[in-house]
Write a structure and sequence with these properties.
The N terminus is likely disordered. Helix 2 crosses helix 3. This protein is of the alpha+beta class and 240 residues long. A seven-stranded antiparallel β-sheet has the order 4-3-2-1-12-11-10, with helices on one face. Strands 5-6-7-8-9 form a five-stranded antiparallel β-sheet, covered by helices on one side. The protein has three helices and twelve strands, in the order ααββββαββββββββ. Strand 8 and strand 9 form a beta hairpin. The protein is 25% helix and 39% strand. The protein is globular and about 45 Å long.
């Protein structure tokens, strides 16, 4: 009888072990996260989720960029709006070209005559380079990484990184963004929530990626409501 109890216990233990192994393997298959490679060969530190997204989009090539130009477009029904930018990040000189005018300002010397243009530039640049802002703005927001979440447009399971900007500094303090991505750390969808409200303010796709001298940019953002698309044309990145 004693032997039977021992054998039964061992059998139950084996079943428990097998169940744990099965669950562990199933979990590994279910989640999308991958351990990103170190940022450089000499660096052993595994990057944060925000850093992994930035580097998946080519942040490691940004130091070589001397100028970036692009046209920001919005189409809604029969209406079209656009404005074009040229930015020299090493000296922070920005030029805005619109159907009405062309202006240039130095971002280190913002005043009452340039603040409106700079606000527009920050908005348009954020849509273009949001993955990089996850490292550029890292001290300005809090973040939370969710391994499993349902993306709002595709209704598929992805990872989710939520960032909430602090209530001081910047043009839009307190705003929140939910980034949805898979194991390649490339953003597929996002949600903008003004002032960190619960309900989404804007939900769009991130698609039509193209590589510009090592920097990946999503040229198309389709909004799920309102028949509205935001997209970029005339993208040019000059490197040294």
């Amino acid at each position: 009888m004693k032997k039977l109890v021992i054998l039964t216990s061992l059998a139950l233990l084996c079943i428990a072990c097998n169940t744990n192994i099965k669950k562990e393997k199933q979990y590994d298959e279910d989640i999308e996260i991958r351990d990103p490679k170190p940022i450089s060969d000499n660096q052993k530190k595994i990057p944060t989720t925000a850093e992994a997204i930035a580097h998946a989009n080519g942040l490691q090539h940004w130091d070589k960029v001397t100028e970036i130009s692009f046209t920001y477009n919005i189409d809604q029904d029969s209406l079209h709006y656009e404005r074009s930018w040229s930015w020299k990040p090493k000296i922070d000189i920005v030029t805005l070209t619109s159907p009405k005018d062309t202006t240039t300002h130095n971002r280190t010397q913002i005043d009452s005559t340039s603040i409106k243009a700079d606000q527009r530039f920050i908005n348009d640049k954020y849509w273009l380079l949001a993955p990089f802002n996850l490292t550029w703005d890292s001290k300005s927001f809090t973040s939370k990484h969710q391994v499993k979440a349902i993306a709002p447009i595709s209704n598929t399971q992805m990872q989710k990184l939520t960032i909430v900007y602090k209530n001081d500094g910047g043009y839009t303090p307190g705003d929140a963004y939910d980034f949805y991505f898979e194991g390649d750390f490339i953003i597929k969808e996002w949600v903008f929530r003004q002032k960190n409200q619960k309900e989404p303010s804007i939900i769009t796709s991130w698609e039509d990626y193209q590589d510009f001298n090592g920097i990946k940019i999503a040229k198309m953002h389709k909004q799920i409501e309102g028949n509205r698309i935001l997209y970029f044309t005339n993208i040019k990145i000059i490197t040294q």
